[in-house]
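Input.
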Amino acid sequence: MKRYILTLFNLLAALTLTAQEVNITVDAPERAVTGERFRIVYTVNTTGGQFIPPAFDPSFSVSGPQQSTSRNVQWINGEMSSVSTTTLIYYVVATKPGRYTIPEASFQSKKVTVTAPAREIEIVAGGAAASQSQGQSQGQGISQPAGVQAADAGTDVSLKLHVSTREVYVGQPVSATLKLYTRVNLSGINELKYPDFKGFLREDLETPELRSLETEVIDGVQYGTGVLQRFLLYPQISGEIRIEPVQMTAMVQQRTSIRDPFFDDPFFDDHFFDSFFSGVSTVPRSVSSQPVTIMVKPLPEPRPADFHGAVGSFTLSSDLSKSEVEVNDAIDFTISIKGSGNINLAGEPVIHFPQGIEKYDPEVTVRSSGTASGSKTFKYLLIPRNSGTFEIPPVSYTVFDPQQHKYVTLRSEGYSITVTGSDDQAEVAAPVYIPGEDVKYLGQDIRFIRSGNGNLTLTRQPLVKTTYYWLWFILALFLASVVLLLRREQLRRNADITALRNRKAARNAHRRLAKAKALLGSGMTEQANSELARALWGYLADKLSMPQSQITRENCHAGLRARNVEEGLITEFDSIISVTEYSQYAPRTEGESPAALLERASLLISKLDNVLD
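Output.
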């Protein structure tokens, strides 16, 4: 019953939900500093659609977007409201000072395309940024000394991926080391991003955390070096495989000179005093390694039948815990593979145990020395079920040796097991199936839970035979039909673009007037007048079905007279438009107040709406 009530509730909720108008906003700083990362945030009040990013300036280093979505559904006073939000964050680093324009971005949904406005941003050098943002920093409780000038930090920070070899066979491990080289001071490393290593299996090796750098001289230049990560790469396909660059963000410490106002004299304009009155700032810098290409050769064909993927130099050994046992006593049989290569990928050997000995799945143990060498052990548990003498044949295991460029077959020794005891006792003690023998009846091996004929009765009437089931079904079908009809009518009305613009003209105009009133309350009179003018022009464009490129006073006069609009209303429209245009060049200091002008515009739109409907 609860399930049907929930279905009805969802159908009723679908009728109460209304589509919200899609809009997009952009948040970006007015000023940024060269070399420092800032954010550009786009927010859309919907989750369904495609975001088309702006064309950033080529000198910008852009990462992202980092996208997140949220949805909030509220039920207030019997009305349901749903708010969906999509947020896209771009991280930008500018390298050259100047004024830049972030172009328009757009968002396309199934019904409409909205555009975010372009934004102007000023990129300043480190010293200029410090002096220009001094007041803002102090307002936020951060003291910023004046006259700070960023020193040249250089570009001597690099990553390099060292590989043990650049030509291997499929399956042959490649030892890789990611190493850092720097000639400047670093305060830390952030956002170390590895590629996907397509075509390889990656195995990370235990690497000590980098706490200090070692001194290393390369081509007569001294560097601070450190190992970030060691790992093994196992190629899975043949051909040239490209390892994409590893990326990271290094926090570079650079020295900044501070000019003290008490010593602002040419006498102190010397390198000695620059180094004395100085500080250190941390600047993020993106660093990438160079791509690495490895040539992977295929394994020779044909492959032996007992080849199980092991590539390297290995040895094979075996061990049997005991050779004389009683029936049903356990025996441990061990096969060990040792050497250097892809020991983790070595497959299980095929062993043909004699009939009469039951074999369980092996226990596999891998021991690695932190490199591509180690051992892999297969430990089998064997239980003889019959008495007699059994022969375990030698195990054949073929590996591919890259040093010899050929397949090498390894063999273990064979074993003989003597089993004593009674076969009848073995059968009673362990009634199991022995491969190669017929199935034997062991007596009462199946015991029924209950014998005899049971009387089955129907406890209740099926749901589909009840009256309320069909009543709820008919009601849900009726409500679904109503929803479909309303939706079809809505789509038909929205298909007529001219009629849709006509219906929404007054609502859009009043929304713009409300925005103009809010701007006026904030003291922005010129912006309020501009928004008022856009409200009137947009209203007439929607009502007269004119494109924005043809909206002029003459065309509007002709359209209004064709719709039998009184001359007084046309004159009132000219008067309001003239006042808004005049305010853009010569702000009014006397005469009619902006609030009264807003009231006149609202009254004019209401009168025109009665005539133009």
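Confidence is low (pLDDT under 50) at residues 11-19, 127-154, 259-277, 426-437.
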